[in-house]
Amino acid sequence: MMGVTHALMGGLLGASSMFFTPELFLAAVAAGFLGGLFPDLDLAWKHRESLHFPVGYTVLSSVLIGAAAATGNYYVVLASYFTASAWLHSWIDILGGGLEERPWEGTTDKGVYSHSLDKWFPPLQIIRYDGAPEDFLLTVFLGASLYPLLNGYPEAQKVVVASVIIGGFYSLVRKKLLDARDFLLKFFHSLID
Ligand SMILES: [Zn+2]
Q1: Contacts 24+ apart (CB under 8 A), 112-117
Q2: Is it the case that residue 44 has pLDDT exceeding 90?
Q3: pTM greater than 0.85 (yes/no)
């Protein structure tokens, strides 16, 4: 699943604050949105390992939600939306493709990694790969669900629209990007040889 898909999903999770902590609504949406993006920052390290903690976030978000309910502290409440969203991301990756350069080929059984169990769960490939048409459809659906909830917050609505546009663009070029990179690599190799 694309980063923007996760982010919008996290934003919606943050929007559930309208029932629990309506006074923090917008901040909670932002915390959820960022928490949804956060695990995929490990693309720069070991993807789906360094910042994806399915079990770890389960424990951490349970503790934080408990602490938030008990104290009502502004920062703890926002941290709990952020962590719950990272938790959702870490688990829901299992619906997507595996950890490989071309996930549509489906050659790996590495979907979601649990550090505590030291075990990979296989990808279900319901959404075949990040940037697949069905991934973009999900992005549109999530964006269309979140947008009206942000009535009165035009700046936040712009972020939702921008996320959907980014998702659409990424979906269009997802496969072509790899071909373009391979073409350039071949070209540079031919210059060196
Ligand atoms: Zn992920």
Answers
A1: 112/48, 112/52, 112/54, 113/48, 113/49, 113/52, 113/54, 114/54, 114/55, 115/49, 115/53, 115/55, 115/56, 116/55, 116/56, 117/55
A2: no
A3: yes
Domain spans, the chain? 3-192
Task: Tell me, in angstroms, the distance from the centre of ligand 1 to residue 158's CA.
Answer: 24
Expressed in angstroms and rounded, the spacing between residue 191 Cα and the centre of ligand 1 is 37
Q: What is the Å distance from ligand 1's center to 57 Cα?
A: 13
Cβ–Cβ under 8 Å, residues 93 and 126: no
In tens, the pLDDT along 98-153 reads 998 899 998 999 999 999 999 999 999 999 999 999 999 999 999 999 999 999 99
- If DSSP states are collapsed to H, E and C, what string results for 10-21? HHHHHHCHHHHC
Ligand 1 centroid vs 112 CA: distance in angstroms?
8
Confidence band for 180, pLDDT divided at 50, 70 and 90? confident
Residues 6+ apart with CB under 8 A from 150: 15, 26, 29, 156, 157, 160
Contacts of 93 (CB under 8 A, 6+ apart): 1, 39, 48, 52, 111, 112, 123
